[in-house]
Amino acid sequence: MPKVHLLSAGYIGDGVASSVSLIEADDALIVVDPGMVRARGAILDPIAGLGYRPEDVTDVIISHHHPDHTMNIALFPDASVHDHWATYRDDQWTSRPAEGFVVASGVTLWETPGHTPQDITTIVEEEAGVVALTHLWWTATLPLEDPYATDPDALHRGRRRVFDLATTIIPGHGTMFTPDDDTPR
């Protein structure tokens, strides 16, 4: 079964950083949203602490194309990159829809537009439950309404879809949380 590690909890306020995660799967080592962080060590040091090198990363998933979620993709030179409509590797662009795309055993992409038309959520089936890595939420509680959402109705539909499945959520700019009755939907 895959295992998710939150490498760096994102934040907003005095600076902005994306939540960056690592997924260990039987057949892949995946980084999600290697975007803006205070220093690259916030991504690389925890990976090294788990016994890996940047070259060991097989895949990078970006939830959407804003720089705060993509800035450090190049740290992983041997990885395939996945977004809302394709997989990229070296000079190859392989078009495919994100919805239902299996990146690795137990790791699937969902199309969850709202923040941008191109947003995706990474769904990971861990032994303890389902982890959703997503920008449908910035943090566990804030903002209630995404001020930059291109489609607020779609965002709320996506939140309800993820809420109904996930036992843990890693939001775009915060620490992981367990969804409950107070989670904005």
Structure explained in plain terms:
This protein has 185 residues and is an alpha+beta fold. It has a single domain, classed as Ribonuclease Z/Hydroxyacylglutathione hydrolase-like (Metallo-beta-lactamase, Chain A). Helices cover 14% and strands 32% of the residues. The chain is built from 3 helices and 14 strands. It has a 7-stranded mixed sheet. The longest helix is centred in the C-terminal third of the chain and has 12 residues, at 152-163. It is globular.
Order of strands in the sheet with the most strands?
1-4-5-6-7-8-9
Query: CATH superfamily, please?
Result: Ribonuclease Z/Hydroxyacylglutathione hydrolase-like
CATH architecture: 4-Layer Sandwich
CATH hierarchy, class: Alpha Beta
In angstroms, what separates the terminal alpha carbons?
28 Å
| Overall spatial form | globular
Helix/strand/pairing class, anyone? alpha+beta
Q: Kindly state the mean pLDDT as a whole number?
A: 97
- Low-pLDDT windows of residues: none
> What count of domains describes the coordinates?
1
Regarding quaternary structure, what we see is single chain
Describe the secondary structure blueprint for this structure.
Elements: E1 3-8, E2 11-13, E3 15-17, E4 20-25, E5 28-32, H1 41-49, E6 59-61, H2 67-70, E7 80-82, E8 86-89, E9 92-95, E10 102-104, E11 107-111, E12 120-126, E13 129-133, H3 152-163, E14 168-170
Features:
185 residues, Metallo-beta-lactamase, Chain A, seven-stranded mixed β-sheet, five-stranded mixed β-sheet, 3 helices, 14% helix
